[in-house]
Amino acid sequence: SEAFTLEVLGEPTARIERKDGSWVWRWDYAMVTDNAGGVFLLIATKSKTSVERSTYVVLEDGVVMKAWQD
Length: 70
Hints:
- The chain is mainly β.
- The protein contains one helix and four strands; from the N terminus they run H-E-E-E-E.
- It has a four-stranded antiparallel β-sheet with strand order 1-2-3-4, with helices on one face.
- Strand 3 (43-60) and strand 4 (63-69) form a beta hairpin.
- The longest helix is centred in the N-terminal third of the chain and has 8 residues, at 2-9.
- The chain is elongated.
- The relative contact order is 0.26.
């Protein structure tokens, strides 16, 4: 339901009303991975990777009809 979706995912980044009266909600976020390592304590390395992602939900009359991520 709409209330459960808000409770679990929080406020969406965007709410788009479609011509048929349904809604598409979108949440944008970044997945950040922080990797640190060393080889025989002589060489230390550290890298950070960030991947932008979005989650979408289609709501019709307060009911989730479809959800996906990209």
